[in-house]
Design a protein that fits this description.
This protein has 216 residues and is of the alpha+beta class. It has helices spanning 8-15, 19-22, 58-74, 86-99, 115-120, 123-140, 149-162, 173-188, 191-203, 209-215, and strands at 25-27, 30-40, 46-54, 100-101.
Length: 216
């Protein structure tokens, strides 16, 4: 996958689901997740096409890089002067071609060739699907090494809504520690924690002067 950060509104759609709700299936050792890719029909209506999203492996990433280079060079693009990020766009298309599959066994690619994706679907729809694939990949292969405060709050919302700690799977172990410490700090500063401390003080019996004199 590229280094582009997936917008949270895309990742949130997945984070807020439990594992059962993701409805993953396994085919030939690969996990696939049901989803939809959208486009407008001749009437201007938004049409959702059922697809399966296959989480990429390193071989798929390698294929995408090599195929993108092949397509770019065949079109006359220059890798050393690629100011329009043509090769990066082609790499995304090639990876999506590997990952967007049909809904029936044996779950073949949705279209015949990578370039057919941009022929039949607009860029926004493809970017949204790419974001979902990136999120699913992160859940299965923890890779987030550092969490900003906004990421921690996003995780709070996702975990609370889904009532599941599955969103934490996107984080590497060190990032999970960061999140736990963040939560502890927020709770420590919360009114609920202050109320808890006050309640504990009320439960502590007061020491009488007579008991102190008896000890002395």
């Amino acid at each position: 996958m590229t280094d582009a950060k997936t917008p949270f509104h895309i990742a949130e759609q997945i984070y807020r689901k439990s594992w059962a709700e993701l409805e993953a299936i396994e085919n030939d050792g690969r996990l696939l997740f049901p989803d939809k890719i959208y486009k407008r029909n001749a009437k201007g209506e938004v049409q959702g096409i059922d697809v399966m999203l296959q989480v990429p492996r390193e071989a798929d990433n390698r294929f995408a890089k090599l195929k993108a280079r092949e397509l770019g060079l065949a079109a006359g693009a220059d890798m050393d002067r690629d100011k329009d990020d043509i090769f990066e766009q082609l790499e995304m298309l090639c990876l999506l071609w590997k990952c967007i599959r049909s809904t029936t066994h044996p779950y073949e690619p949705l279209v015949m060739e990578p370039l057919e994706l941009e022929k039949f679907y607009d860029l926004t729809s493809l970017v949204n699907i790419y974001g979902k694939i990136d999120t699913l990949s992160g859940m299965l292969n923890p890779h987030v090494d550092a969490l900003a405060e906004e990421d921690c709050w996003a995780l709070v919302g996702a975990i609370t809504t889904s009532e599941n700690i599955l969103p934490l799977h996107v984080c590497a172990p060190d990032s999970q520690n960061t999140f736990v410490l963040f939560m502890a700090a927020q709770l420590f500063r919360s009114q609920e924690y202050k109320s808890y401390l006050e309640s504990q003080e009320d439960l502590t019996p007061a020491r009488s002067p007579s008991s102190d004199s008896q000890k002395s």
